[in-house]
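// run 5 | inverse folding | seed 20
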C-alpha cells in the first residue's frame, strides 16, 4: 500500500536558470548575479517554467543545458543548469 501512495506523489526537482542582459533583470537571480534556483513540481517544459516566473518564452532565442542546445519544450531534470540567451540586437 505504501508504494501506491508514493507513486501518486508528483516529483519535485530543483533546477538552476542562468541569464544575462535583459533576461537577467526578468529572472531575478537569487544564487549569484546571473543564477536563480527553482523547485518545480511534475515535469513542466522550459516554456511552462518561464511563463510561471513571468518570462515570456519569446524573449528566449535559445537555451543550453550541459553545453547542448535545448528547445523550449525540453523538460529539465533535477540539478540541471540551463542557460537562457536573448535574441541578438544592436545597430
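// decoded
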Amino acid at each position: 500500500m505504501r508504494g501506491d501512495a508514493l507513486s501518486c506523489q508528483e516529483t519535485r526537482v530543483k533546477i538552476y536558470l542562468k541569464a544575462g542582459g535583459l533576461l537577467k533583470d526578468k529572472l531575478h537571480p537569487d544564487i549569484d548575479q546571473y543564477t536563480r534556483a527553482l523547485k518545480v513540481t511534475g515535469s513542466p517544459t522550459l516554456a511552462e517554467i518561464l511563463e510561471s516566473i513571468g518570462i515570456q518564452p519569446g524573449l528566449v532565442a535559445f537555451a543550453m543545458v550541459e553545453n547542448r542546445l535545448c528547445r523550449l519544450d525540453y523538460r529539465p531534470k533535477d540539478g540541471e543548469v540551463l542557460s537562457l540567451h536573448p535574441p541578438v540586437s544592436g545597430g
